Amino acid sequence: MNSPLKNIVVVGGGVIAWWAVVFLKKSDPKLNVTLLHNPVEDAFVETPEPDFSYLLKLIGLSSQDLIKYADGNYCCAQAYFDWALDVENYFHSADVSDLDYDITPYSQWLLKLKLAKGDVKADDYLLASSAARVGKVTFAENQKIFSAGLSFDADSFIQLLMSCAQALNVNVLNDELEQVCLTAAGEVESLLTVTNANITGDFFIDVTGGDSKLLGSGLHIEYDSWAQYLPCNRKKYLKSKPRTERLIPFSAAQLSSLGWVKNRPLRTQLVAEFIYHDDLAYVGSQDATLELFSNSKAYTFFPGARKKTWHKNCLALGEAAVTFDYFSHSSLYVAAVSLQRFIEFWPNSTGINFMESEFNRVMATEFQAIRDFHCLHYVLAKKADTPFGELLKEVKLPESLRYRMELFGACGGSPADESTLIHAAQWSNLFLGFSFWPKTYSGMLSHVAIADLELWSNKIKTNIKSTIENSPDYTRYMARLISAR
Amino acid sequence: MRATMNPNTIKKIVIVGGGTAGWMAAAALIKKFSALNIKIVLVESESIGTVGVGESTIPHIRHFNQFLGIDENVFVAETKATFKLGIAFKNWGALGSDYIHPFGPLGHDINGVEFHHYWLRMLSEGMNYSLDHYSFAAMAARAGKFQHPSSDRENLLSTYSYAFHFDAALYAKYLRAYSEVRGVLRQEGVVVETKLDAITGFIQSIILDSGLVIEGDLFIDCTGFKGLLIDKVLHAEFEDWSHWLACDRAVAVPCESSAKMLTPYTQATAHSAGWQWRIPLQHRTGNGHVYASDHMSEDEATAILLNNLDGAALAEPRSFSFKAGQRKQNWKKIALL
């Protein structure tokens, strides 16, 4: 490899493959980008969180485009109904408002208040959550405090990306991959298709889904299963018409006896997702949720990550690289971030492997943080007397999450870590939202009178209330947004 | 679950050692804990001198001063401070080389690609421009100019930060006044003995040469290289880094300065077995030669230092030794280093 990368071959299909070819071409129009189009079973709906708009901007699109052309709908919070013990509902958001009392974090003064006054609700102090709950929109004015996620129809987005790809002169070959040919040095040399075409390239991107035909089967990079931490492996989708004309700016999750259900409202339809383990929903088992989804196709997924996602001249994206459950951070978002990082590490001529290990280290850190964040949902979920409740009891704690929980549980602490995709505030919001309280609060608060804390907390609530009162109604806001273009 | 504050909440903090570290700790703690009714005692002795180096800072010092609520103009006047935009490294990479490490970025990203890639590409095409040209702070430093940065992010004047050179003894004196006025108790004396709790192994009290016993809940060890508490008493292991950082001695001397020599940067000049600092203050210039004693004698190091001063030496050169490394535990039981 003595010349700069010029010919990039992307193998696979679905929203991530189309995203990748467009993103590569936008990054460097001089690249020759070929898509060997092998359709993969794809997500029906995507909710990249928290902020997808900056990535969209890089390919010349905006959130408004997705709202208009891909049934897009903002997702300002994730509601959990009856999820954790003693918590009726919790609206989680990536709100990072500065709620410190002097320098004492939110978790600390809220704990002191809770001990003195009894019931406090963690999400009462999060603007994004409080607004979403009442169908108001505050993000336009408060982009610094939090950025909204966006749910959209993946198939419609693919159509958008396809027209971008066409305009950018991406070569699209509809042919099936038969064999990955390697050089003596163990790099990918070319791809042989079923019609005997031989596709050569300088760099290959594997978007072939869980099969990982290049990095996995071709280059034998192993896959670490996270089944002990993330216990589900099947999902089903169900579309329906919305019940009201009001748009809903949040998604909602609820436990069921065989798994859990996530409702993701799009602009003109509701999409319900049933996530479960196939052992629980065997043929013939009786369950209302199962009944509801009985006509839907079951998609299989295997939570885990490949030991490395960049090896020699091959990068894996999507489920070929890493698979999570479906709480936050969609696979498109993670893939888009991976690709953007890869481009930051873009190899030049001979140094093709120079940054490989650093890239893999950085991405492994991100993947682990998301895995732990998702695992925490199961760890703190109610263990009801149901098959799924029993399954949840079996969930293991990753060592990194155990340490994080100990630290937060002791005094609301947070390890200084390197993940850029989940902030400390998101962790502590979720801990408190699911009623996982620290044992003690900071000694810095020992002198603060309860009355002062009440004053402080009421001030925050009043601020939130008046901001929400002065914010537009979400349904009307969206109507204006759509008619504006 | 019941959350309570430990009844053994810290009520009294004892700082052992004055100097800049001790008085910075005292000032920060009394400021932070003003509402907590925590007693703070600082034990120091006139008979034990301070090293008095560490007069050249990085921009974080400003956050520290801001936290204390110190007015910058007062600080500059009281400590005879000057402004600093970066550090000039002379003869460092090679004889004759001269690089300014600025408090600010070199160039900026273009299309998500970091600046150094562009610079390397230009270099490969034969365009060997000094990196300084891409840093406002470096260019201003070279020109001997300074002004406060702008808060307007669109303005080029917002692309740098700054720090200070100051007289460490005056800074300690200033912070001592700041702390004492707010309630820190200064106790003259030398620690001769330390009592540990028989069960927990925590430091319980220290005993001074006068026989005075000072009890405390938290002890902060600001005794410098000695590590009077953390090392001598609690035996926190020291991890030696001298195989990476070979210098183990320094000789320091102040010299006369003139307005002409007032540069808004610290200078670090490489010598054969170490390097020399030059820190311009309002009333004098601080100089020191840090070297590896395995490779150079003290006489030789002193001679090199005295040969490379801006003006006449104002005092006899003082020498001291140190060892690069860290305590494996900076917080052990109840002494902080």
Describe the structure.
The complex is a heterodimer of chains A (485) and B (337). Chain A is built from 15 helices and 22 strands. With 485 residues, chain A is an alpha+beta fold. In chain A, the strands form 5 sheets. A 7-stranded mixed sheet of chain A has the order 6-5-15-16-17-14-18. In chain A, strands 8-2-1-12-21-20 form a 6-stranded mixed sheet. In chain A, strand 1, helix 1 (14-27) and strand 2 form a beta-alpha-beta unit. The longest helix of chain A has 24 residues, at 356-379. The N and C termini of chain A lie far apart (47 Å). Chain B is α/β, with parallel strands linked by helices. Chain B contains 7 helices and 20 strands. In chain B, strands 5-4-14-15-16-13-17 form a 7-stranded mixed sheet, with helices on one face. Chains A and B meet through helix 4 and helix 9 of A and loops of B.
Brief description of this entry?
The complex is a heterodimer of chains A (485) and B (337). Chain A has 485 residues and is of the alpha+beta class.
Give unreliable regions of chain B as ranges: 1-7
Q: What's the helical proportion of residues of chain B?
A: 10-25%
Task: Estimate the mean pLDDT confidence of chain B.
Answer: 90
Q: Figure out the total of helices of chain B.
A: 7
Q: Tell me about the biggest sheet of chain B?
A: 7 strands, mixed
**Shape verdict of chain A:** globular
How many DSSP E strands of chain A?
Answer: 22
Kindly report how far apart the N and C termini of chain B lie.
Answer: 35 Å
Shape of chain B: globular
Strand order of the largest sheet of chain B: 5-4-14-15-16-13-17
Oligomer: heterodimer
Helices and strands of chain B: which structural class?
alpha/beta
How many strands appear in the DSSP assignment of chain B? 20
Query: In angstroms, what is the radius of gyration of chain B?
Result: 23 Å
Largest sheet features of chain A:
7 strands, mixed
Fraction of residues in β-strands of chain B: 25-35%
Order of helices and strands of chain B: EHEHHEEEHHEHEEEEEEEEEEHEEEE
